[in-house]
Amino acid sequence: MTTPGLLALAEAARHIGVEEYPPGSNRQPFGVWFNSNAVPWCAIFCSYVFHAAGVELCAGFDGAGVRPGKGCAWVPTIRAWLEARGWWRGPHETPEPGDLVLFDWGLDGKLDHIGIVERSLPPQIVTIEGNLRNGVGRMTRDTAHVAGYGRIGG
Question: Domain count of the chain?
Fold first, then answer.
């Protein structure tokens, strides 16, 4: 069965290699689409690929960074929306391809980054992320900084 997460993952993979221009500017096509360019854009990228899969992140939700018809640009708001929908999974659960993964680097007590799980390789995960080294890329990460996962649709 093809889930929205798998559709979003396939869309994310199509954009690997898209880069900011100029480098370090946060200017890229997903920000143009979101009508908010030159800002941190990991959540905007996730909003874009899920929108392409037919899901609007944070639809009908009131919170920072929500842009009706597009999605959300603020990782903590996405977590609150996932929790409200019953789609939040804790950091010790095994993610599935297409799950959102939310990270906390432990710097300020707030969520810092978001991507999409491509596969699980305990104790690591492989992700596709926007705003990764000035572009869209694939990353293998240790799960130590995973705050949790979001499985769209439950």
Answer: 1
Other CB atoms within a 10 A radius of the CB of residue 128 amount to 26
Q: How far is CA 78 from CA 23, 68, 144, in A?
A: 27, 13, 20
Predicted confidence (pLDDT) per residue in 101-113, tens digit:
999 998 888 899 9
Question: pLDDT tens digit string along 67-82?
Answer: 999 999 999 999 999 9
Task: Provide the CATH number for the domain around residue 56.
Answer: 3.90.1720
Looking at the DSSP bridge assignments, the partners of residue 113 are 103
SS3 114: strand
Q: Which domain does 20 fall in, by range? A: 4-150
Sign of torsion over alpha carbons 142, 23, 107, 63: negative
Distance CA 131, CA 22 (A): 13
